[in-house]
Amino acid sequence: MDAQTTFQPKEFKEKEVVMSEQQQPFYKLLTKTIQTYGEIEMKALTNIQTVQKFLEAQYTGNFDRAFQSYAQPNFQWIVGSGGNEILRAAIPWAGYTHKGKEGYIRLTTLLFSEFEALEFEPKRYNDAGESVFVEGHFTFRHRQTGKIADSDWIARFDMQDGLIAGGQFYENTAGVALARKAA
Fold it and tell me: Which residues contact 124 (CB under 8 A, 6 or more apart)?
C-alpha cells in the first residue's frame, strides 16, 4: 500500500514527507505550478504596487523579502546628494551610495540608531514609467538631543524589469542635521 501524508503546516515542518513513486511526478508538477504562479503574480504587480510591497516588507523588518521579491540585485540608494562631503559631515548616512541589501540595512541601522520615528507616512505615489515618485512626511526625534526633525520628503524609485533598481531620498537635510546637534 502507498504511504500517505497529511499536509498540515505543523506536521509538514516537523516530519519528512513520504510519497510513493506514483505521487512524486504529481508533487513535482504541483511544485512547478506553484513556483510558476508565484512568478506570474510577481510580474503582474504595477510599479506602484512593487514599491508599496518593498516599503511594507522594509517597515516590518523583512529585508530578505523586500530585496528578494521587489529589488534588483544591483540595487543602489542615495540619501540627499551623492558624493556631497559637506552633507556627509553633517549626516553620516547621507551623501553616500548604499549598495545592495547590506548597504540599505546599514543605512537604516544608522538612521534609526539615532532617531526615533514618530511619524513616517507615504502620502502619494506617482508612476512616471521608469521611476515611481513617492511623496510623504516624517517626524523623527533624535535619541540624544531630543530635538525634532520634521520634513516633507520625496523618494524616487528607479524601476527595471518590474523591480526596484535603486533610487534617491530627498528630505530637509538641514533640519535633520540641526536635530543631531547638541544645544
Answer: 134, 135, 136
Cell digits for 110? 544608522
CB 153 within 8 A of CB 122: no
Identify whether the C-beta of residue 137 lies closer than 8 Å to the C-beta of residue 172. no
Distances (CA, A) of 138 to 119, 121, 123, 142, 154: 5, 6, 11, 13, 11
pTM of the model: 0.75
For the chain, the residue count is 183
Task: Give 25-47 pLDDT, tens digit per residue.
Answer: 655 555 555 555 555 445 579 99
Q: Which domain holds residue 164?
A: 47-180
Instruction: Give all strands of the β-sheet with 131-142 in edge-to-edge order.
Output: 97-99, 71-79, 163-170, 148-160, 131-142, 115-127
Residue 131 sits in a domain of what CATH number?
Answer: 3.10.450.50
Task: Report how many domains make up the chain.
Answer: 1
Strand-pair partners of 170: 154
| Closest alpha carbon to 132 in 108, 168, 94, 173 | 168
